[in-house]
Amino acid sequence: MARFVDHVTLHVTAGSGGHGCASIRREKFVPLGGPDGGNGGRGGDVVLVVDPGVHTLLDFHHRPHAVAGNGKPGMGSFRHGANAEDIELAVPEGTVVLDTDGEVVGDLTGIGTRLVAVRGGRGGLGNAALAGPSRKAPGFALLGEPGESRDLVLELRSMADVGLVGYPSAGKSSLVSAISAAKPKIADYPFTTLAPNLGVVSAGGSTYTVADVPGLIPGASEGKGLGLDFLRHIERCSVLVHVVDCATFEPDRDPVSDIRALEAELAAYTPALGTDLAARPRIVALNKIDVPDAADLAEMVRAEVAEFGWPVVEISTASHAGLQELAYKMAAAVDEARATAAPSTAPRVVLRPTAVDDTGFTVGRDPEEGFLVRGEKPERWVRQTDFTNDEAVGYLADRLARLGVEEALAEAGAVPGDMVTIGINTFDWEPSTPAGVAAMRGNRGTDPRLEGIDNVDRASAAERRAARDERRRHRDDDELGIAPWHEDYEDVPAELRGDDR
Predict the structure, then answer these.
(1) Residue 164 burial (CB < 10 Å; 0-12/13-18/19+)?
(2) How far apart are CA 46 and CA 86, in angstroms?
(3) Cα–Cα dist 6/365, whole Å
């Protein structure tokens, strides 16, 4: 027997990226072949896709784990590893995806809507891609990144135009069966309906869907009975219809008190999608008027129920009295809600460029764990490093130094031997680059031998520059103190005069 499942916990794990290859071309008559290691392939994603042929989350109830494939490792001769295929999980329309903290990750509405639940890891670079002017033949490659893993809660919220609300055994399932072709289970005991039943209704030129959801009792907003299961499925409904049992045998119930109890529960419920249930149009259906006492009670309370300001219709699902009038009133309310609804637009592409002064990482201090470096780049670089290879560790140190991590640690007060945590790895910090060593000494460019000297008899840089320009300037004979050529001509030696005298 088929089951309706509208709430499951899904464990999804994306594929890891393939490792890069460290290979050197070795071929006869080809000296200095150089590195030829290929890159690793990308790990597969896990994607949720809205499928019109799926109406329940039953498949995930039986198979709650989804794991994507890993990327293939790179190989020599510049052969890159293959990317893993993504896994697509079909979900019904109206599925809401939440994380374990209850935050909405995605609202899947519309056929073909896709949501990447977890992303696969990047493949590691081979040594051919790491070669450069300063490192012509790397003896290492980068590791592939592990894929993301998380737990997600999938909740199905019915995509119906009209939601029927009421106490158990108020006649909601009978109403759906009477006005549509749906055939829900109908019985005379409370909580007969354990799963929503949807029916399609046509009235005039309008066609809309009606949802019969589990019954409501006082305290449902706090989880009593099937209240949360009930309330979750009316979040998307444009119109709410109060189905009131006028033939109940319970002495402490009457139509007006039933409506007030239902409204109190609706007001106490906080929809996860941020919708406002109080603003939805309402219709009151006084049911079971085929029973004489119920017909008399409906006539007595009709004026009092009308004080709520909503349309009131007396109906009977047994004799079909008033059903046509109710169907037309629901159609009019649905048409009005559709006309006033905001038109659906394509999602906007939002670009968030990195700020000019954003270094891409932060340095914090923990009294117990030392210094914490957080950032996408440094954490990814650490994950990609093979710490059994000294050259790979040196390459990581160079990358962190170019990013400015060593200077930031020195400015934060780090000294050699302090613990520094990046991602899940913890190191004893020993600055190995000139930038890190210079940053530890204080102001860069100072001479420790001049510390403590108050007055130093040394010209400033501007004075030294002016003296240099003065030395290089061209001077004439007057400035040099040399007489013109026609004066004292006889004193000039003959070999320098250039004549025969």
Answers:
(1) buried
(2) 6
(3) 45
pLDDT digits (tens, 9 = 90+) for 84-124: 999 999 998 888 898 888 888 888 888 888 999 999 999 99
**pLDDT confidence of 450, banded at 50, 70, 90?**
very low
- H or E, element range at 183: none
Beta strands across the sheet bearing 282-287: 197-203, 206-212, 162-165, 239-245, 282-287, 312-314
User: E strands along 160-287, which residues?
Assistant: 162-165, 197-203, 206-212, 239-245, 282-287
Between the CA of residue 269 and those of 183, 212, 397, 480, what are the distances in Å?
29, 19, 54, 100
Q: Which amino acid is at 172?
A: K
- Positive/negative CA dihedral, 219, 198, 182, 343: positive
- Closest alpha carbon to 416 in 370, 455, 377: 370
Measure the CA–CA gap between 404 and 319, rounded to whole angstroms. 80
The one-character DSSP state at 443 is S
Q: Can you give the pTM of this predicted structure?
A: 0.67
| Radius of gyration of the chain measured on its C-alpha atoms | 40
- pLDDT tens-digit series, residues 240-283: 888 888 887 777 778 888 888 888 877 777 665 556 677 788 88
Give percent above pLDDT 70 in the chain.
77
**Residue 58 identity:** L
Token pair in block for residue 253: 């119930």
H-helix segments, 113-269 = 127-130, 172-179, 227-232, 255-268
Q: What one-character DSSP code corresponds to residue 45? A: P
8 A C-beta contact, residue 94 and residue 157: yes
Provide CB contacts within 8 A for 22, sequence distance 6+.
35, 37, 126, 127, 138, 139, 140, 141
Helix (H, G, I), strand (E, B) or coil at 266: helix
pLDDT, residue 47, reads 94
Residue predicted with more confidence, 453 or 484 = 484
Question: How many alpha carbons lie under 13 Å from residue 202 in its C-beta half-sphere?
Answer: 2
CB-count burial class (<10 Å; 0-12, 13-18, 19+) for 490: exposed
For the record, the structure tokens of 7 come out as: 């709430």
Which residues, in sequence order, are CB contacts of 120 under 8 Å at separation 6+? 14, 15, 16, 17, 42, 43, 44, 45, 68, 71, 84, 86, 147, 148
CA 308/CA 429 separation, integer angstroms: 71
